[in-house]
Amino acid sequence: MRHFTILASALALAAGLAAPAAAQEKLKIGFIYVGPVGDFGWSYQHDRGRLAIEKAFPGKVETTFLENMPEADSERSIEQLARTGHRLIFTTSFGYMEPTLKVAKKYPNVMFEHATGYKRDKNVTTYSAKFHEGRYIIGQIAGKMTKSNTLGYVASFPIPEVVAGINAYYLGALSVNPAVKVKVVWANTWFDPGKEADAAKALLAQGADVISQHTDSPAPQQQAEAAGKMGFGQASDMIRFAPKAQLTAIIDDWSSYYIERTKLMLEGKWESKDTWGGLAQDMVHMAPYTNMPADVKAMAEATQAAIKAGTMNAFKCPVFDQEGKEVPCKGAGVLSDEQVVGMNFYVKGIDDKLPK
Amino acid sequence: MSIAEAVLITVITAATPLLIAALGELVVERAGVLNLGLEGMMAVGAACGFGVAVMSGSSAWGVLAGVGAGMALSTVFAILVLGLAANQVASGLALTILGLGLSGLIGAGFVGTSRAAIAPLFIPGLSELPFVGRLVFGQDPFVYGSLALAGGILWFLSRSRAGLKLRCVGENHVAAHALGIKVLHVRFAAILFGGACAGLAGAYLSLVYTPFWSPGMTAGRGWIALALVVFASWKPLRVLLGAYLFGGATVLQLHAQAASLGLPSQLMSAFPYLATIVALVVMSVGRRTAVTPGSLATPFVPDR
Asked: Please, where are the H alpha helices in A160-236?
């Protein structure tokens, strides 16, 4: 009997010791997505990054995600992750910026990574990708491919990242086709397939023959396909939804960044900084160039290589705003990173009023 | 195709899922039951409809599966609120959460799959008429179905004996019970009908409107349909009007933006809601008669 008691207490002790040891070994990483993982766009790509972490660090990490989290109501979800032992938390939408900073103040030992924002803290890092580099390429393609000289753009919210995307797209198109126009429709949502489709239909009905989008579902591309027009996939390769319409797609690739940050965290070397990678850093990819003549494809490839090499830039000075005023040039012959990250104006020639 | 024609065709597509779901809910509420689970039932209808259509290769089977899925989920609701006399508001909200989660699970294997939309009808000669051709004779089968549904429900509620019984159950279930009407049976049938409509509306989303599956693709349409029923004072023709008004305002504001009219887009996005509420409220001003079904959302437990 006595032996049994000793054995039992030894076991209990062992279990008691083992449990925290195991918990310390595994780094808990949390993710918050604005859309469903299955949106096949923005959130889908972030989730692929999460899966890449799990694959890269087998047995060392444990990941959790919360999908479909409304931005306005995200604070408690972020806090929930922080409270439940997640030591690294990725908040993957612009609107999570303030909630992330608030929660980060309360949990100084938890490290936060906020996508597409511009405010940092000791334990809040920001990261984003230079999607506008891809937008410049697809703008050039659109400028060459359009027959009606009217491009349609389904936009989400008037935040700098989206505005910079529209500008880069238009400047790209303008660089190869001086007669081109872009029509912008703000859907005021990141994800509502029905509304995105309606927006694309409105643009098509008003003469647009190339549909670009900065919303997350493949619905606008499906509409372009059904109407026999063209378009560009967003965030992930949407060729399956528009096999005859998709010219290319801008693909976000977070995997290498996520793996890098997790590695630093595991080594205890994580620190707050800002990362803004583009084609050169492999954070932005282009899907295969399809459904276009060889010369357009060659042009797109050349532009892609030039941007990657740093010899071409979407926002090469001089840049003029809608009133025709020259925007001060704060970079080296181009607009500075800060100017692009905080872009809140349309460039000259865009026939739309920017919602404020 | 002229712009006016394009606008009208898009309006019909935008209005149809709202109309179908709202008509089903109207019947449920006229029977005295409040089912807040529309969004969940629509999502499950969309997921099952798309999944079965892809697997069987037949749109018809997809539609049937959507309807069946909506009915199956509404049966769960019926067991709770009729069998166990549970709180209808709480059960309905739970049904929404369950439905959204379940739809994600069912649809997980179909994310990234695409299929062609159910084709609109084409009647040689008629569908080729200028302007009215596409509009009147070239819609998809759901559109005609939804209009027939509105007419059928109007006739059923106001002209048929069964409709009278259903309204009686909704107005005063104690009196209906005293008259020998089987309150719970009537309500069960109404809930099933509402589930079928919600499932059908969901299938419309994933088979016609945007022919793919993605979790959360209902994007709040169930809630809009619910609100339409209330603002339409539980009258089928006003639901029809409300759904088309809402769809119309949604599409028009997108067109206004594409035409660069220069109005603030946030305001334009709110426009459909404002226009629908104002129109339906104005219509009910001046009529002081009670319009809310008297027994709405009250559980009924027959004394034995």
From this structure: 160-176, 193-205, 219-226
Q: What are the helix (H) ranges across chain B?
A: 3-30, 38-56, 59-78, 88-107, 132-137, 141-159, 161-171, 173-178, 183-204, 221-231, 236-258, 265-284
**A236, A218 Cβ separation under 8 angstroms:** no
Q: Which amino acid, residue B211?
A: P
Decide: A208 and B16 in contact? Cβ < 8 Å. no
Contact B205 A38 (CB under 8 A): no
Complex ipTM, two decimals? 0.88
Give the residue on B whose Cα is nearest the Cα of A151. B258
Say if residues A107 and A88 touch (Cβ distance below 8 Å). no
Are B1 and A192 within 8 A, CB to CB? no
At A277 the three-state DSSP class reads strand
SS3 B118: coil
Spell out which residues of chain A touch residue B7, defining contact as CB-CB under 8 Å. 202, 205
The answer to whether the Cα torsion of A168, A171, A176, A177 is positive or negative is positive
| pTM to 2 decimal places | 0.86
Contact check, Cβ <8 Å, A202/B257: yes
Q: String of b and e for A318-349 (b: at least 16 CB within 10 Å)?
A: ebeeeeeeebebeeeebbeeebbbebebbbbb
Structure tokens belonging to residue A253: 């690739």
- What is the Cα–Cα distance from B223 to A298, expressed in whole angstroms? 49
Cβ <8 Å between A202 and B262: no
Distance CA A78, CA A30 (A): 9
Which sign does the torsion angle of CA B79, B82, B83, B85 carry?
A: positive
Residues of chain B positioned with their CB less than 8 A from the CB of A194 = 14, 17, 205, 209-210, 217, 219, 221
In angstroms, what separates the C-alpha of B260 from chain A's closest C-alpha?
5
Q: Tens place of pLDDT for every residue, chain B, 304 residues? A: 678 888 888 899 999 999 999 999 999 999 999 999 999 999 999 999 999 999 999 999 999 999 999 999 999 999 999 999 999 999 999 999 999 999 999 998 898 888 888 888 877 777 777 777 777 888 889 999 999 999 999 999 999 999 999 999 999 999 999 999 999 999 999 999 999 999 999 999 999 999 999 988 999 999 999 999 988 889 999 999 999 999 998 898 898 888 877 777 778 888 888 888 888 777 777 665 657 898 898 899 887 5
Cα separation of the two ends of chain A = 78
Rounded Cα distance, B182 and B270, in Å: 44
Measured from the Cβ of residue B275, the count of other Cβ atoms closer than 10 Å reads: 17
Using DSSP's 3-state secondary structure scheme, residue A275 falls into strand
Which H or E run includes B199? Answer: helix B183-204
N residues, chain A: 356
Encoded amino acid at A355, one letter:
P
SS3 B280: helix
Contact flag B17-A355 (C-beta cutoff 8 Å): no
Contacts of B209 in chain A (CB under 8 A): 193-194, 197
